[in-house]
Amino acid sequence: MEIRKIIISHLFILLLISCSTKQLITTNLNVINKKLSQEQLKSWQHKDLISDSIPGISLDKAYQELIKNKKGKDIIVAVIDMQLDINHEELNQSIWKNKKEIPNNNIDDDNNGYIDDIHGWNFLGNSKGESVYESNFEYVRIVRNYNSFIKTNNNKIILEDNNKYIIYKKADSILQVNLKEYKNEVAYYKKYKIRFNNWKLELKKYFPNEKYTIKKLKSIKTNNNKTQDAINKITHSLKYDLMDRWIDKTIKNNQRYLDFYLNINYNDRELIGDDENNIEDTNYGFHNVGINQNLKTYHATYVTGLLSANRNNKIGINGISNNIKIMPIVVASNGDENDKDIALAIRYAVNNGAKIINMSFGKAFSTNKVWVTEALKHAEKHNVLCVHSAGNEFQNIDIVNDYPNDIDGNNKEILNNFIVVGASTRHVNNKLVSDFSNYGRNNVDIFAPGETIYTTKINNTYKFKSGTSMATPLVSGIAALIWLQYPKLKAHEVKEIILESGVSYDIDVELPSYDEEKKLVPFKSLSKSGKIVNAYNALLLAKHYKKWKKGKWKIKK
Q1: Bridge partners of residue 521, in order along the sequence
Q2: Direct distance between the N- and C-terminal alpha carbons of the chain, in angstroms, rounded to an integer
């Protein structure tokens, strides 16, 4: 019945719009789109459209009215991602422990193929405890592998209608474009640094210690054009924080692309020591899934906090549930994930008891898609739900490739346990969809809050983050809530419940794109469900699921 309440209230707003009652519309939308305080922003994604006038997932309402003090058994959610701060004050109580394994005895006690995997597995590590932090983009791997094939086959010419050759040509084209772009960027900013140093030299007599202030810069009176130009440039740089540190950081970041991500001569698998083209070569990796001082990206910690941050310690943030146990599996670094690692990570999660697999990553090419598809089918066979981020390239992934996915070469869905999640905002207007989010009527299943989301960062700190990576764990968490309350449901049923119970918004929104002038499209056209996920509705539908399937209980719209 409460599902009806949400949708009717939403339709009330739509009714006002259809009647062109502008004053009433403005009043209602102002209430919904009110400015939030910093404290309100920290948990907006958990709020309810009706009770709080905030388009969150109604988690707080679900706890207050449906879950209350009910305690279910723990449920394992595998987070396939980067290395994780397993000692974070909000997360340490929720990390999965392999009770069949004895720590640090260098023996595979449970015979699962992984030695000392107490908390999960790092597919990017080696037996020395070293780990890969920078990886090639997938299209670079494709070019390198194809070039190697040509070399070992005596420069044998491959017909241009050969599928691998077509993919290689596309990959090489993208590689060459990006190489040129980043080489130009590095060259530009190196020259800019020289000019910047010359501006500072010109102003040395005014600022011998280079302690600039805008006020002092503006107070300098000169008829020298060179000096005035230096004043203008340093003033601008100071105003927008584009000083030495920013220039050096920009050069360094662009150079990283040339050194690692786009470098055909850099092969991250050399540190790991496996054969990346042999799925049977599984004897690699390391048991340490925790963060390392060399890791500069904390993605897994951002994701995990939204799932399992302690709801009882009254610090930081609240996750979805304290009954979620996180199984960290490392496949991601800076760069693209390897299909072999993804496939083996999915199988590891399934074989070691995970019910849900959260995958907040993606890439535009897939060298060995069949390995990943077979692993996803393995998850489907064992009733495991896989939840994947749609990506942040503001693209239609019905048209462009985004991997991993649940479709075949004809864009036909081949799995029933796979959910793809786009990102929504807290604004119930034309900006309801995050401007970075990928979308797709066929290949994105549902949206979830993913913009300005407060979550855990390493070393007991917290940060606002945005991305479909933040939206995805909210859906994974709701799936966990459903199973915690109704454990007999199948994975495909949980997926159906999540998609059917979301909140519809029958409004036009800006289509994510590069264009400054955004095209307006119906929100319902951007995903399969046309909805934003809702925990309250999902739990209510799960409760009545059997009756609903028999037509004896309806979601009244």
Answers
A1: 509
A2: 10
